[in-house]
């Protein structure tokens, strides 16, 4: 998709779908320098902290491999088993180093572009056999960057080695006059410290490489305006995307309606399914305004919010259904429902002005005109309750 347009046309940031498809194809920002530096640092750190014990264990294992008792000498067939045992002991001795470096490599590999496994990237890619593509890789910008990194790494290693040799020149010259074991220990310490300093300095190159790989990947994922439009059209035609958009729109709409409940004067409900919120200004000339309505779960949330805000909830199933199916949010109620609605609002206002010692008003018997009777699916019904 991105390959259909020139580099100059790709001025738009990649869409979420574009990035998702790239990850499905195994494409992500990847830095080879960061895992390499992390592995060397981890190995050198383990050697600094635990190198003496490791060397002692390996020495004991190596020495034991050259010791044979009379029973072993008389039974030559036992030598392979003893040899395998010594290999196992040596492997166990270096196991901490292997585990630490493996963990370091895994953690560092996700620094640039996260962790990703794709079977597509693991499969054969015959495009890499294209000679022209190979020449572009050899003489392109990426090849120049890799050459630059190689030169910098070589320079860093050379400078670190030169500095360490200069700093330890006296200690190195004295190694020839001491016994073999102390000399090996001192040389190993110098080598490990030099490796650790070199690896830490290589972190600068790794950090640059991570930044460069992220920048290159983001640039490669850019899209043209036409590609963005085509992808949006394609996504809008996807039934799953449409359903997700509609569901999100319903969630936003219901949230907005719930926020309006605090401004309502009364919530008229069919307690099981419907709820409508009305607001009325006694000082104005207008009719009551329907500010929110909902079904099932939304209706339940409206009633819960009304109780929290102190808004009265009045159960009147026929009136709730009539208001729900005849009035849109933000509209005034129909003329034919004025009287029934006025009864409810007058009752609620009477409750709001009720004081202790006064006789509480009785709930009104609300009646809805026959031609505005609805069932739960919005069909008009006659007096007997059957669909008209």
Low-confidence residue ranges: none
Biggest β-sheet: strands ordered side by side in the sheet: 3-2-1-4
Mean pLDDT: 78
Structural class: mainly alpha
The tally of strands reads 4
The helix count comes to 14
Span between N and C termini? 56 Å
| Structural Rg | 39 Å
- Could you say how many structural domains there are in total? 2
The residue fraction in helices comes out at: 55-70%
Large-scale geometry: elongated
| Quaternary class | single chain
Strand content: 5-15%
- Written as H for each helix and E for each strand, in order along the chain, the element string is HHHHHHHHHHHEEEHEHH
* Major sheet description: 4 strands, mixed
Descriptive labels:
single chain; 388 residues; mainly alpha; name from scop; four-stranded mixed beta sheet; 14 helices
Give a description of the structure.
By secondary structure, the chain is mainly alpha-helical. It folds into two domains: 2-234, no CATH class; 249-372, secretion proteins EscU (name from scop), CATH 3.40.1690. The chain has 14 helices and four strands. Strands 3-2-1-4 form a four-stranded mixed beta sheet, sandwiched between helices. The longest helix is centred in the middle third of the chain and has 42 residues, at 180-221. The radius of gyration is 39 Å and the shape is elongated.
């Amino acid at each position: 998709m991105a390959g259909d347009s020139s580099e100059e046309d790709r001025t738009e940031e990649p869409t979420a779908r574009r990035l998702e498809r790239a990850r499905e194809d195994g494409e992500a920002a990847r830095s080879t320098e960061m895992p390499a530096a992390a592995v060397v640092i981890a190995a050198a750190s383990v050697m600094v902290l635990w190198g003496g014990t490791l060397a002692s264990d390996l020495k004991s294992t190596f020495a034991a491999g050259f010791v044979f008792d009379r029973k072993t000498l008389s039974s030559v067939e036992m030598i392979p088993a003893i040899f395998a045992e010594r290999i196992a002991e040596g492997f166990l001795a270096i196991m901490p180093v292997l585990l630490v470096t493996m963990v370091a490599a895994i953690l560092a590999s996700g620094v640039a572009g996260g962790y990703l496994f794709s079977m597509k990237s693991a499969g054969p890619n015959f495009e890499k056999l294209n000679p022209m593509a190979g020449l572009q890789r050899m003489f392109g910008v990426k090849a120049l960057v890799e050459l630059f990194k190689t030169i910098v790494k070589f320079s860093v290693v050379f400078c670190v080695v030169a500095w360490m040799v200069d700093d330890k020149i006296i200690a190195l010259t004295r190694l020839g006059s001491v016994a073999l074991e102390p000399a090996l220990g001192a040389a190993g310490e110098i080598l490990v410290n030099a490796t650790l300093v070199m690896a830490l300095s290589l972190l600068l190159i790794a950090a640059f490489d991570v930044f460069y790989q992220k920048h290159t990947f983001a640039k490669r994922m850019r899209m043209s305006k036409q590609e963005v439009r085509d992808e949006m059209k394609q996504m809008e035609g996807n039934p799953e995307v449409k359903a997700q958009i509609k569901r999100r729109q319903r969630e936003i709409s219901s949230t907005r309606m719930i926020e309006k409940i605090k401004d309502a004067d009364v919530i008229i409900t069919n307690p099981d399914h419907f709820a409508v919120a009305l607001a009325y200004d006694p000082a104005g000339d207008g009719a009551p305004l329907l500010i929110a309505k909902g079904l099932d779960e939304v209706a339940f949330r409206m009633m819960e919010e009304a109780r929290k805000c102190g808004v009265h909830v009045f159960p009147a199933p026929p009136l709730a259904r009539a208001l729900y199916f005849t009035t849109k949010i933000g509209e005034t109620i129909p003329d034919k429902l004025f009287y029934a609605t006025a009864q409810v609002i007058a009752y609620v206002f009477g409750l709001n002005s009720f004081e202790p010692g006064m006789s509480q008003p009785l709930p009104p018997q609300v009646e809805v005109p026959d031609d505005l009777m609805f069932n739960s699916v919005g069909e008009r019904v006659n007096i007997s309750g059957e669909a008209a």
